[in-house]
Amino acid sequence: MKLNFIFSILLSFTAAISQAQRIDSENVPFQLLKEPSNPVEAQNRNFSVAVSSPYNITKEDVVKDAKANFQKQVDNYDQSVADAKLQHEERLKDYEAEVKKLQEKYKTESAEYNKLKTVEKIAMNATPPVLRIPSRPQLNIPQKPVYTEPDLRNALIVDNKVLASQINIDGFSRGGNYIEVSVNMERTNFQDNAGKSFANQPTKLVVKQNGTVKIDKTLFSDFEEIASSPTNEINLAAHEKNYLQKVINKINEILADNFAYAKINSTVKVETVKNKGEFDDLEKASIYVVTNLKKFQAKPDYAPNKAALEGLDKGINLWKDGLKKVNYDDKKAPYNAKIAAYLYMNLIRLNIALGRKSEAEKYLNEMQEHLVDMKLSWDQNNELKGLEQKIYN
């Protein structure tokens, strides 16, 4: 009887182990093709760019300006020396007045100190006053100006043709007019405010697709901080060059979002239940998802991507079917709250990685309704918070 009882316990323990749900995970790398907001057929992927700006600066112009600035410094040198001497005389007057004031103070304090008896000096811990005279101001004569060749690396050498050549749409050929890009920009405006430098560069961007206006907006009309020092202490040419490049980069970014296909290398965590029998469909789902994610190629109009997407959807549908079997009230049920948590996390992660935020949000909302039953681990809670931020940011 005792042996039969022990044997029954062993059978129960073995059954419990067989029903335990072992969940493994894999980080799956894959390529994703980001499609544009305004897709263009392959045969029409060509563009032209017209830029209107006040820029028409050559290397010769930069050298000419440098020589003109040098000549201005030469012409103003005598006046700058006179100004320096005048400022020195003013500082000398202030200095002499300060010295006189310190001497009078020293004389008064010395008289008061000398009136004290030795016992009083000891009791008051008094020390004799000291006369400290500040250094006498020195005359600083400005150095004579010396001409140096301008650094062309920081010089703003640009014209409308150069600016147009920097505007591009990946995957499109230059020279056609199916996409017409028109840019009208002002020169960079600088402004001082509270000891800092600010700049703006109002730029009108108009883009037509086959004659229809798709983009019409003004960029960089608001002033923004570019340096923590005033404009007279910074290299305006270098800052103007940087700001102009910022404008070009923004235009290219807008064009890419609207018309260009982009290759994105991504990674997504996929979990799976390895137990045989009860969870074969879920293991099959993970195989579908992992295998087909790896098949994706970030190429427009790439036929195998369609088959990979269909295979991926087979796995997703098996996960959805698994959710329908969940019994949140029975911890010993094969499809319990633990299985539900792993399925929801898979669906949320995958949809975020594929750029389907609305679908990911749907599963997030469903999962939140059952969170009280799931009792997530500390790691799961943290990951879920991160996924939620990706959905809503």
From TrEMBL:
Residues 67-119 form a coiled coil. Residues 1-20 form the signal peptide. It comes from the Bacteria. Keywords: Coiled coil, Signal. This is Uncharacterized protein.
